[in-house]
Amino acid sequence: MANDKTPVDFPAKVGVWWNSEPWPIREAQGIAREIEDLGFGSLFMPEGGGKDALVESAAFLAATERLVVGTGIANIHFRIPIPAETGARTLAALHPGRFVLGLGVSHAPFVEATMKGSYGKPLATMRTYLERMNSVPTEVEEGARPARVLAALGPKMIKLSGELADGAHPYLVTPEQTAATRAILGPDKWVITEQAVAIGGDAADQLRRAHTHVGFYTPLQNYRNSWLRQGFDDADLEPGGSDRLARALVGMGTADEAAAFVTAHLDAGADHVVIQVVGEGVTADPRPALRELAAALQL
Predict the structure, then answer these.
(1) Which domains does the chain have, with CATH numbers?
(2) Percent of the chain with pLDDT over 90
């Protein structure tokens, strides 16, 4: 990869991270259009096995005009490297500067138990995958290649995200970890950080939602290791996470208070921050909270 990052035409420095998989695609396209109309600069989506993130990306790109669409993240165990690269180049050719390919190694329990696959050493697996992607001839959609970022939490994966990708997509991290990611990557790579927020309701309800959100990840070793590196301890990694962990990772309070978490990541060196609204389950409509946050962030 070149030293300079592949350009992305973000209309704003703040975007949205939303699990669109449970929604019918035409309804989801309507939500994407409203996200764009609110002034957010991007829509990133996960890939949990319900839908193909590249196909969803194509639908959202077609439904909007300026919104950057990204995978956060596309699971490398779902598709072999060559179609991952050629599919991403096709989207980049159709929508220049508006697609970001986020890639990740997923988690051993999911790959082995749910997918019945084999989970090898994450760093070596990702390196091999990226090298195979890079073997696609330049003549395939020549000149069209999206920015490529990795779900990188540890220092070695962050370093790889600068070596064979355009940067990193940190998830469930503090602003201090965003700063550490920037320090490893230097100034010429993308740092696109996710920030969860829980607004609306009273303080107890917000904390409950934050614990439910963090609790989904506390059994996963990749995140446990990440939080230990970030200064938390074993007591914080109890099921659901400690109050300290939940409050550090999820912006709570008013929309203005939650927006301050987003600003802290930008101040720490993130190029772009994507907000994940933590609601009542995966089918909760993110738009009421996003409207408040758009106003608080003066988008």
Answers:
(1) 14-296 (3.20.20.30)
(2) 90
